[in-house]
Hints:
Layout lengths: L2 H23 L7 E3 L4 E5 L6 H10 L3 E2 L5 H14 L5 E7 L8 E2 L26 E5 L4 E4 L6 E7 L17 E3 L4 E10 L1 H10 L3 E2 L5 H12 L14 E7 L7 E2 L25 E5 L4 E4 L5 E8 L9 H8 L4
Parallel strand pairs: 4-8, 12-16
Antiparallel strand pairs: 1-2, 2-8, 3-8, 4-5, 4-6, 6-7, 9-10, 10-16, 11-16, 12-13, 12-14, 14-15
The structure holds 2-acetamido-2-deoxy-beta-D-glucopyranose (3 copies).
Amino acid sequence: MDSKTLLVFLVVCFLSEFSYGQRDKKFFRKDYTYIESEQSFYKVHSVANTFNEAKRICALEGSMLFYAEDVEEFKAVLSLWQRTQPLIPWVFVGLTDQMSEGLFETVDRRPMSEVYTHWQRNQPDNSKDNEDCVCMDYLGTMNDYICETKNHFICKKTLQSLEWNNNCNMSNSDYIYNQDIGKCYKLHTTPMNWTDAYAACRIESTSLAVINNRMEADYLAKLTENTPEPLVSEQYLQGVYHVGFHNRFLEGWQTVEGTPMNVDAELWFNNKLPQNHYEECGSMFFNGRLVSNSCNMKSFFICEQQAIPTTNTSTSTEQNEENYMQS
Ligand SMILES: *[C@@H]1O[C@H](CO)[C@@H](O)[C@H](O)[C@H]1NC(C)=O
Ligand SMILES: *[C@@H]1O[C@H](CO)[C@@H](O)[C@H](O)[C@H]1NC(C)=O
Ligand SMILES: *[C@@H]1O[C@H](CO)[C@@H](O)[C@H](O)[C@H]1NC(C)=O
């Protein structure tokens, strides 16, 4: 190979390596599909929900309730919609006049004139003075509709807004990495009952935190003590965080992973397993001791994600750069 051929060869190698790396990086969550022409990720939800629930679920997933910027984006997303959920006739889109009747805005408060709109004839009509949320059918036609009805919806995440939490291998930067434990944790300070807390972690693609040993309990105790308590106006159980164990099926205390809870007795409050058969859900006192609670009690809660095992080999940095998204 002469030097000119070698140069061309190297440039080609570099370019293909580069484009391979770029393509690889376009990852947000397993349940989202990247659409190249829109530089964004989308998920068509198969479970219908009210408008405000839909907004909340997208936010927990790290994204936003979808509305189209223009007709091209509508068509691109329609093709995903028809490929993945062909039976869904219409969806809620992120447009509403809930704040002030007649003033339609996007959920991130942009004027409607900036985005794709295509009202059906004689719409919006605010029928019975009760229609503040916008539905769109597969023709892209829009109608104002009742926010409290349950409809399917689509969430969207732009590539531009994507940040990557390298240690935790996820896009959510609220998760705090602990290298000794090999897990990432997030304290949620919106009180929820145990089953809703379980769901909130799952929607974030994580799990209620499982405490296996004293090191984990002590670390979580430290985390909770260092977290200032926010002002919460509603009633909730103070002094504990819901974590990932329960006896809801009266099969004995088990973790959310389905394995028996076999932590040291000293980790249980009062050094003994809970006995009350009306308190079947697991929580942790601020000092890291485990206690049972009624599953319908609202309290703060902790989600966890397994971290990526760190390696100290010379190739680890290169691999990280190839495999994980960086903002
Ligand atoms: C990071 O997450 C992705 C998607 O969930 C997964 O496919 C990959 O195996 C994970 N990488 C590591 C090193 O755990
Ligand atoms: C938790 O709250 C939800 C409403 O947010 C309710 O539907 C559910 O039944 C409650 N779970 C328990 C175990 O009380
Ligand atoms: C990796 O190397 C750094 C510095 O050489 C060291 O501080 C760190 O503890 C090592 N991490 C692991 C997991 O061995």
